[in-house]
Amino acid sequence: MTTPESSVRTPEHPMAFTRDELLAGALTTWVLFLALLPAGLLVAAIVTIPGSSGFDLAAVGSLVGMVLVVMVVAGIVALLLLPFALLVVWPLASVLRRVRPIAIHLLCYTLIGAGLGYAYLATLGGPDASWFLSPAGALTFGMPAIAVTLAVPLGWWLTARRALRRDAGLLPRRRGRRGPIDHDAATEDALADGASPIR
Fold it and tell me: Is a pLDDT exceeding 70 seen at residue 131?
């Protein structure tokens, strides 16, 4: 008699999580960052282009090239920083596993995203932050900070929503990695179902 996989979430720990859910949240956040960054850069370009005097194909090609370079560099840097971000998120998520209100979780993860964005801006700013003086520079160089500030809480929310919907039976359980096979339990289940024991 096999029972469905039980959830790690209990009444005492309504927002508990598994290691797989934590990693899924980190990867979801990374993918969202990679989606939000080029979208934001394109918006920044559109906002700053109205001052120009018409459509310039060379400028569009330059913009596309810049977006691709920024995506590759930002994607690699973000992927390298992901394990360090998990070192911050794991203890916070462990503390918050007893807290049911989603708004508190969103606030905490928004603050983490904003902290990462601020660290990026502080690193980029250095002693001469002249790029920040023009609107185009502020939008272009500030966009990764905005993207990470949005991606972190959104990645958490999507992952938590998926896990809670799975617990409620609204989504099928994942058939990912399995733990070690308990041969005694498998034999007992087979005998209870009237089948021959598993060897």
Answer: no
**Long-range contacts from 33-37, C-beta under 8 angstroms, 24+ separation:** 33/74, 33/78, 33/147, 33/148, 33/151, 34/71, 34/74, 34/75, 34/78, 36/146, 36/147, 36/150, 36/151, 37/70, 37/71, 37/74, 37/143, 37/144, 37/147
Coil, strand or helix at 170: coil
Whether the per-residue pLDDT at 80 is higher than 80: the answer is yes
Over pLDDT 90: what percentage of the chain?
45
Angstrom distances, CA of residue 17 to CA of 7, 21, 189: 9, 6, 28
162, burial (CB in 10 Å: exposed 0-12, middle 13-18, buried 19+):
middle
**58 pLDDT more than 80:** no
Q: Which two tokens stand for residue 91?
A: 């203890």
CA angle 40, 46, 52 (to 5 degrees): 145
pLDDT tens digits, one per residue of 145-178: 999 999 999 999 999 999 999 988 888 876 655 5
CA-nearest of 95, 69, 85 to 27 is 85
